[in-house]
Write a structure and sequence with these properties.
With 426 residues, this protein is of the alpha/beta class. It folds into two domains: 153 residues, Aspartate Aminotransferase, domain 1 (Alpha-Beta Complex), CATH 3.90.1150.10; 261 residues, Aspartate Aminotransferase, domain 2. The chain contains 13 helices and 16 strands. The protein has a seven-stranded mixed beta sheet, sandwiched between helices. Helix 6 links the parallel strand 5 and strand 6. Helix 4 runs parallel beside helix 10 and helix 5 packs across helix 9. The radius of gyration is 22 Å and the shape is globular. The relative contact order is 0.15. The mean pLDDT is 95. InterPro entries: Aminotrans_3, Aminotrans_3_PPA_site, BioA, PyrdxlP-dep_Trfase, PyrdxlP-dep_Trfase_major, PyrdxlP-dep_Trfase_small.
Length: 426
């Protein structure tokens, strides 16, 4: 198909393309991206360029059009783009599994490759439920989590997202009924730790697992909490025979200043989900890791297999790029780059505290958040950021940024100015 004029492309988009979290037909005209390189998105028909402050929903940690990742994709494409994973295997998937095991918290030994982050959470829940069923304890089938969380848009993940005020509130009464405790405070409070212990003890006979986002709650509110709560959860789960699941889809691969947020607490979960930055933003892929305890328990059951098998599971093209992305990350001073961005965001976002309507400003690793005391005017805030030459995607009462790790100091400062401008206008 020849290139379409932007006006025609936008009209076709409005009529036929259903964008995420939007109506059909669309009511807000999207920007048309023609190409991307480094940290910049090139808009169509000479409309300028934008520094990407979002890493394409937190995935493009190395930026765009990276020569190392491009070459990995080209080389693998010359071998095979896909082959079914049932009864077959291949080097990219095996190498990826070994890389993930080697870099993840000690004890996570087995890797189930999935299509997306949400599917990796589905797999994690299925693992936990089947583990207890295999051990003859099928009554353990509920999940405990804290409010303010977000774990994806498919069925089981929606059930452990915040049921009040979250984007999945529509499905209350239809989703599985899980156990919720209050959202974790930013700092450690013994009274809250006791609430966690008490809830796990009280519901232990029916709990298959506790599932949380460690240290940073992502799309549920961009809230940070003390890593000490992860140790409380680990100890309580061990004491009451409950599995512990960490959703590291947003926090994995260095975003918080540790390769995985679990490392801030020196805790190993029984199951861990990763995604987003796994392939450096090149294509969709995720993984669910588990301990030998979980895998062996499932294998000893009446049905000794995990009955889950996505068509594109272990896709060699995605696995090759994921391997290249992980090796690229580990082969450089990723922590130094994340700390550099953290310092730049702290300096650049500090003035936001003086803006009327700003409730809080918080920074952790390569994450910067400005929280308003009102719902953000998404169009006004987005337009303000675009005028500063930056792409942001505000939501609810939040204007935030998760830039690629390759973002230079000048562009970090530019992103911070755009966040402040969006806060003033939004």
């Amino acid at each position: 198909m020849p290139d379409l004029p932007v006006s025609e492309l936008l009209e076709l988009d409005r009529r036929h393309v259903w964008h995420p979290y939007g109506p059909m037909p669309g009511r807000v005209e999207p920007l048309v991206v023609e190409s991307a390189s480094g940290v910049r998105l090139q808009l169509a028909e000479g409309s300028g360029e934008l520094v990407d402050g979002m890493s394409s929903w937190w995935s493009a940690i190395h930026g765009y059009n990276h020569p190392v990742l491009n070459e990995a994709a080209r080389e693998q494409l010359g071998r095979m783009s896909h082959v079914m994973f049932g009864g077959l295997t291949h080097e990219p998937a095996v190498r990826l599994a070994k890389l993930l095991v080697d870099m993840s918290p000690d004890g996570l030994e087995h890797v189930f490759l999935a299509d997306s982050g949400s599917v990796s959470v589905e797999v994690a829940v299925k693992m936990c439920l089947q583990y207890w069923r295999s051990l003859g304890r099928s009554g353990k089938q509920r999940l405990l989590t804290w409010r303010g969380g977000y774990h994806g848009d498919t069925w089981q993940p929606m059930s452990v997202c915040d049921p009040e005020g979250g984007m999945h509130e529509l499905w209350s009464g239809v989703l599985p009924r899980q156990v919720f405790v209050d959202a974790p405070p930013a700092e450690y409070e013994e009274s809250y730790a006791e609430q966690l212990r008490s809830a796990i003890e009280r519901h232990a006979d029916e709990l298959a697992a506790v599932i949380v986002e460690p240290v940073v709650q992502g799309a549920g509110g961009m809230r940070f909490h003390s890593p000490a709560y992860l140790r409380v959860l680990r100890e309580a789960c061990d004491a009451h025979d409950v599995l512990l699941v960490f959703d590291e889809i947003a926090t994995g691969f260095g975003r918080t200043g540790a390769l995985f947020a679990a490392e801030h607490a020196a805790v190993t979960p029984d199951v861990m989900c990763v995604g987003k930055a796994l392939t450096g933003g090149y294509m969709t892929m995720a993984a669910t890791l588990c301990t030998s305890r979980v895998a062996d328990g499932i294998s000893q059951g009446e049905v000794p297999v995990l009955a889950h098998g996505p068509t594109f599971m272990g896709n060699p093209l995605a696995a090759s790029v994921a391997c290249a992305s992980i090796e690229l990350l580990l082969g450089q001073d990723w922590l130094g780059e994340v700390k550099r961005i953290e310092a730049g965001l702290r300096d650049g976002l500090a003035p936001a505290l003086e803006i009327p309507g700003v409730k809080d400003v918080r920074v952790l690793g390569a994450i910067g958040v400005v929280q308003l005391d009102h719902a953000v005017d998404m169009k006004a805030a987005t337009d303000a950021a675009v005028r500063e030459g930056v792409w942001l995607r505000p939501f609810r009462d939040l204007i935030y940024t998760m830039p690629p790790y390759v973002t230079g100091d000048a562009d970090v400062a530019r992103i911070a100015r755009a966040v402040c401008a969006a806060a003033r206008e939004g």
